[in-house]
Design brief:
The chain has about 240 residues and is of the alpha/beta class. The chain contains five helices and 13 strands. The strands form three sheets. Strands 1, 4, 5, 6, 8, 9, 10, 11 and 12 form a nine-stranded mixed β-sheet that branches. The longest helix is centred in the middle third of the chain and has 13 residues.
C-alpha cells in the first residue's frame, strides 16, 4: 500500500508562523507534524509515500529529502497553485498507482495512530468469497473522531461501519483527516483543477459506498497557533 500526505495548504490561520515555514513542518514535541506521520507509516511497513506541496514546497523537499533517513521512499507532487485535497490526489494519481492508498492531512497530530489497520479496510469480496458489485462496494474508508470543541456539529453520521451525510442529534463525528481510498473515486476529477475531497465523500456517502470507524486515540487538528502552543506546553 502507498500513502499520500497532504502538505499543500497555505495555513492562513497559522500566520505569521506559516509565512516562513510550511504548516506540516511546524514542530510538536520537537518533531515536525509531517514527520510524525512518516515515522508511523514506516513503522507499519508503508514506506512508499507521496507528498503534494505548493506553499514553500521547496522547504518540505529540503527537510525530508528522498525519505531514506526515515526508512521511506518519498516522491513529490508539486502544485503551482494548491489544488485542494481531491485535486491534489488527481494530479498525483500516476504516483499512487491503481491499488487503494491511505491519505493523511499533514496538519493533524495523532502520534499513536497504527497504520497497520488501514491495510485491509476496503474489501473486494464478501465473507463467502463472492466479489462485491462495483456499485455496492465501499470506495473509501474514513477514520472519524469525537467532535472537538471547535467543530461541535461534526461531519458525518455512522451506523454499523457505514457513513452517512446526516447523523442523529448527538451522534455525529468529525473526519480525522485520515482515510483509505480507491483510485477510481477520483475519475471525475480533472487533473489540474481544484476540488475538495469532502465533495466526493458526500456523493458516495449518499450512495451508501462510504465506510468508516471511530478512532479513539490522541488526535488534534493543529489549525490554530493556540492549539499548537497547547500541544507544546510542558506536560
Amino acid at each position: 500500500m502507498k500513502a499520500m500526505i497532504f502538505a499543500a495548504g497555505r495555513g492562513e490561520r497559522m500566520r505569521p508562523l506559516t509565512d516562513t515555514i510550511p504548516k506540516p513542518l511546524l514542530k510538536v514535541r520537537g518533531r515536525p507534524l509531517i514527520v510524525w506521520h512518516i515515522v508511523n507509516l514506516v513503522r507499519a511497513g508503508v514506506t512508499d509515500i507521496v507528498i503534494n506541496h505548493a506553499h514553500l514546497g521547496n522547504l518540505i523537499e529540503e527537510t525530508l529529502g528522498d525519505g531514506s533517513k526515515y526508512g521511506a521512499a518519498i516522491q513529490y507532487s508539486a502544485e503551482s497553485v494548491a489544488l485542494e485535497t481531491a485535486g491534489g490526489i488527481a494530479k498525483a494519481r500516476q504516483l499512487l498507482g491503481e491499488e487503494p492508498f491511505v491519505a493523511i492531512a499533514g496538519d493533524v497530530y495523532c502520534p499513536h495512530f497504527d497504520f497497520e489497520q488501514v491495510k485491509n479496510t476496503l474489501e473486494d469480496k464478501d465473507l463467502w468469497g463472492q466479489p462485491y458489485p462495483l456499485d455496492k462496494r465501499d470506495v473509501a474508508w474514513l477514520y472519524l473522531v469525537k467532535n472537538p470543541p471547535h467543530h461541535p456539529q461534526g461531519d458525518f453520521g455512522l451506523h454499523s461501519y457505514s457513513i452517512s451525510n446526516e447523523g442523529e442529534a448527538g451522534h455525529t463525528y468529525t473526519y480525522s483527516g485520515i482515510g483509505v481510498y480507491r483510485p477510481e473515486m477520483f475519475d471525475s476529477v480533472s487533473p489540474g483543477q481544484p476540488e475538495k475531497l469532502v465533495t466526493l465523500m458526500r456523493k458516495y456517502a449518499a450512495r451508501g459506498q462510504l465506510g468508516g470507524e471511530v478512532y479513539r486515540g490522541d488526535w488534534t487538528d493543529v489549525g490554530t497557533i493556540e492549539r499548537l502552543d497547547q500541544l507544546n506546553a510542558p506536560l
